[in-house]
Amino acid sequence: MGASHEIRVIVNGAVIVGWTGYHVERSMITPSDPFELRRPFDAQAWNLLRRDSDVRIQIDGTTILRGFVEKRVHSSKAGTMVISGRDRAGRLVDESAPSIDYSGMTILQAFQRIVSPWFGTVTLSDARNRRLSVGKGKRVASGAEPVVLINVRVPRRGIVHPGEKRSQILHEIAARTHTIWWSSADGTEIFVGHPNFTQGAQYILLHAKTGTTAKGNVKDMTIEEDDGDRYSVIMCGGVGGATPDNYGSNVTDNRGVVYDNPFNKIDGTGRDFIHPKRMYMPEKEFESNNDAQRVAANEQARRDFKRHIVRVEAPLHGQFLDPGAPATLFVPNTIARVINQDHEPALDDTYLIVSCAYSSNRDQGETTTMMLVPTGTEIIL
């Protein structure tokens, strides 16, 4: 199958093309994104793409990932070369965090200390990254960026223990403040905040009903609903054991409790759960009742992320939204209208794209595999 998108790798100002297969991921829910590219062996390309080279991977001239080559393979028999690695956030995953006590620091100050020197900017807005990542195709109004206060102090104590990774500390701080973080596609910024649910839907992903003449525009669409790691009620308390009484109002005030069904404050059943499923989280040294409630709510949000997920395999790496215009690339933190006429009941709603995997091989050609969650889903990792 012929290539519809131009894939380029830029290293030290040199442009390397001719890639016959690749898999590149971009995600807002994983700490770093991997890549792997294959092409016929070329001595000049091999010498340029040394291990630990700083590379930019582009689709149609748009940078979708900047990272470091970690591994390369030359097969003499096949006459091929393969490079693989991760984006610059891989350094945050691998390196130990600086030994600091970020107690009393603001969220912004703590992030800046931990991501330096790999990222010079910590930003509250993903608008620039989203605007650049979609390429030269049609754009919709971004909507107001979510307001996040990161000039406030990090909740609870913050001591970095020897050996803890930079990404571990970032996740810990973000979870305490109901935020998530990811790196920009061009590798210059770390974003900390919330997804933008106010933007308009930019893509239409349609799976037509089987046996009809309607024409869909996706290769496959799956819908996952998962309660395996979820609970009908989660309580976080400073004292007490996990007995039936601990889920009632007679528990000590030093507690926080959340229900899957907020209208049933007995056991939280009636929405996704038919039968009660309870979790008790003993904690110590809460600063306030709100602190206990925040921990319980964070735990519920982290687990509820898997409640309803749509996975889509779409042809190419974007949609041609205007006749004759370049494709608008699929990228995370954008909104799509998802229609599945084969589902019962039929699905037609807006979803947030949280990850994209761009792939190409001889058998399937160019595809983008996306993971989406309903708009408004709270994401705590």
User: What would the average pLDDT be, to the nearest integer?
Assistant: 89
Task: List the secondary-structure elements in sequence, H or E.
Answer: EEEEHEEEHHEHHEEEEEEEHEEEEEE
Gyration radius (Cα, Å) is 23 Å
Question: How many structural domains does the protein architecture include?
Answer: 4
**Poorly predicted ranges:** none
- Class derived from helix and strand content: alpha+beta
Characterization of the model:
By secondary structure, this protein is of the alpha+beta class. It folds into 4 domains: 7-87, Baseplate protein-like domain - beta roll fold (Phage tail proteins - horseshoe like beta roll fold), CATH 2.30.300; 92-193, Baseplate protein-like domains (Phage tail protein beta-alpha-beta fold, 3-Layer(bab) Sandwich), CATH 3.55.50.10; 201-226 and 307-374, Baseplate protein-like domain - beta roll fold (Phage tail proteins - horseshoe like beta roll fold), CATH 2.30.300; 233-304, no CATH class. Helix content is 14%, strand content 35%. It has 6 helices and 21 strands. It has helices at residues 43-48, 90-94, 107-115, 127-133, 166-176, 289-304, and strands spanning 7-11, 14-16, 21-27, 34-40, 54-59, 62-75, 80-87, 121-123, 180-183, 189-193, 201-207, 220-225, 233-237, 255-259, 278-282, 308-315, 318-319, 328-329, 334-340, 347-361, 365-374. The strands form 4 sheets. Strands 1, 2, 3, 4, 5, 6, 7, 11, 12, 16, 19, 20 and 21 form a 13-stranded mixed sheet that branches. β3 (21-27) and β4 (34-40) form a beta hairpin. The radius of gyration is 23 Å and the shape is globular. It starts with 6 loop residues before the first strand and ends in a 7-residue tail after the last strand.
